[in-house]
Design a protein that fits this description.
By secondary structure, the chain is mostly beta strands. It has one helix at about 1-15, and strands at about 25-30, 35-40, 45-50, 55-60, 70-75, 80, 90-95, 100-105, 110-115, 120-125, 135-140, 145-150, 155-160, 165-170, 175-185, 190-195, 200-205, 210-215, 220-225, 230-235, 240-245, 250-255, 260-265, 270-280, 285-290, 295-300, 305-310, 315-320. The chain folds into 2 domains: about 25-45 and about 280-328, no CATH class; about 50-280, Methylamine Dehydrogenase, Chain H (7 Propeller), CATH 2.130.10.10. The two termini are about 35 Å apart.
Length: about 325
Amino acid sequence: MLKIASAAAAAALLILAGGSPARAGLAIVLNSGEDTISLIDTETYKEKGKRPIGREPHHLMPTPDGKELIIGNAVGNDLVFLNPATGDVLGRTPQVADPYQLGFTPDRKWFVTAALRLDRVDIYDASKVGERKFSLVKTLPLRSMPSHLAFAPDSRRVYVTVQDTGEIAAVDLIDHKILWQAKVGPEPAGIWLDAKRERVLSGIMGGDYVSVVSTRDGKLLDKIAVGKGAHQIYEDRQRGLLYVSARVDNTITAIDRDTLKVVRTYKAGPGVDCMELAKGGRELWYTARWAKRVEVLDLESGKVIAKIPVGRSPHGIFVHETARTAAR
């Protein structure tokens, strides 16, 4: 009882002093090559645990209420729900075919998956997400290898990169049909839609640029030169920047979100892929797939301040922030 009282008293004193109790944050990393997740303490930069999760986990995202974290097991054909603060498994939803990439529409009506292995996009009714239940409403074939998703703010469209055909597809989520498909470059991957819904950007993995196309008809408007193997696009809302990972050149390029001009390039680890901000936006955490590690980049200095060994082919990453560090 003395230990509990002492801890409570210390926390109370800290709060009265204008602070909050110091608790470590948690980074959750998907090791796609060995069917595990790694749990990393964001204060010590150490892996604190590793556990099996299912066959080929690639991407993950929080539920709309932020209370749970969803992992898509692409080959396992299921979803796993975690406690984002601890990494504990809360439940599983079976019979979700090849959920390689996944996302909710902003209005929370639809849950959409890009089934890369099955060459299709699946649209599910998300009204029972709180019960971890999804009902398949529509399957749309998209050849070949649909991989990443970007949702319009009004929830009327989702834009999908189709890697093998070098296209972006615009999908109508009201009528459940494909509106247009447009060539953008070899192996488009990560995708981002601007706030005005006028331009959609994609990292061209088979090239060294980001494509910029019109949302109206898919017309190619511009190419932004970045590193070879341009892959993921991650938005830093605080700074008004987009970070683009390049898996061949091992770089991260910062692009001004409004002008689409390159403002800085950072050196990163082998096979840099998915990214997440942490520590109030001061740090950028990313997976280095070819090196079997996670790296932490200090955005101000441009230096890599931590290299954390994890499992084989780390892909998706999520950072759970505490009251002390939260600024997502």
